[in-house]
Amino acid sequence: MRIISGRWKGKRLNAPKDLPTRPTTDFAKEALFNILNHRFYLNEVNVLDLFAGIGGVSFEFASRGAEKVHSVDQFTKCTTFITETAETLGFGQLEVFREDAFAYLGKTHHDQYDIIFADPPFDLPTQDYIKLIDLIIENQFLDEGGLLILEHPKDQNFEGHPFYVEHKKYGNIHFSFFEIEDDSEEE
User: Fold this and answer.
1) Which residues of the chain have pLDDT under 50?
2) Sign of the four-CA dihedral 40, 44, 46, 50
3) DSSP run (H or E) holding 137
4) Helix (H, G, I), strand (E, B) or coil at 78
């Protein structure tokens, strides 16, 4: 895995081989960040990375200067790798939570995020994908004008969801985008 842009552009990170992850490919990550660069000032965003795995997306946001990055994963080896790597690279804005993503979303909180990236296991049942989206929106994790990006396999389709915006495909990687419109833009 490598960091594509920002302070640590080109930095290769070697995660242990025995981690239970399926990292987002560099190709898909680069395409996704091209989209985000046109929509956000990435050095001003607060980010939540759910099912963070080895932290590839978290590190990309941190390298680009995101104000706050919260990485959530339930596996100790993953969170240890993210924590140690963040310390080595000087990513003080990156905070790691070892917890199941659904449990994390079910807690009372005070944080809202401009961008939420979720990359759950591809064998997650459709109803759990929907539950994930709904928990994020109902519990107000996503700020108005913010964007939820869900990475998923090709057999999942979320076009009927009320907050669905669009779908992008990069190789075998599929991203669906959801947003809560900013009411201030309607005036």
Assistant:
1) 185-187
2) positive
3) helix 126-138
4) helix
CA separation for the pair 55, 50 (Å, rounded)? 10
Is 147:39 a contact under the CB 8 Å cutoff?
Answer: yes
In this structure, the number of other CB atoms found within 10 A of the CB of residue 140 comes to 12
Nearest residue to 58 via CA among 147, 98, 118: 118
Q: Is the pTM of this model over 0.90?
A: yes
105: Cα separation from own chain's centroid: 14
* Whole-number average pLDDT of the chain: 90
The dihedrals phi and psi of 78, each to the nearest 5 degrees, come to -70, -50
**Beta-carbon contacts of residue 170 (< 8 Å; ≥ 6 apart):** 25, 27, 28, 31, 32
Query: Which pLDDT score, from 0 to 100, does residue 1 have?
Result: 82
Residue 187, classified by CB atoms within 10 Å of its CB into exposed (0-12), middle (13-18) or buried (19+), is exposed
* The pLDDT value given to residue 186: 47
pLDDT of res. 77: 92
Residue 130 is encoded by which pair of tokens? 């929907």
Neighbours of 116 (CB within 10 A): 26
The secondary structure of 30-77 as a DSSP string is HHHHHHHHHH--GGG-EEEEET-TT-HHHHHHHHTT-SEEEEEES-HH
For residue 182, the model assigns a pLDDT of: 65
Residue 141, token pair as written in the block: 């994790």
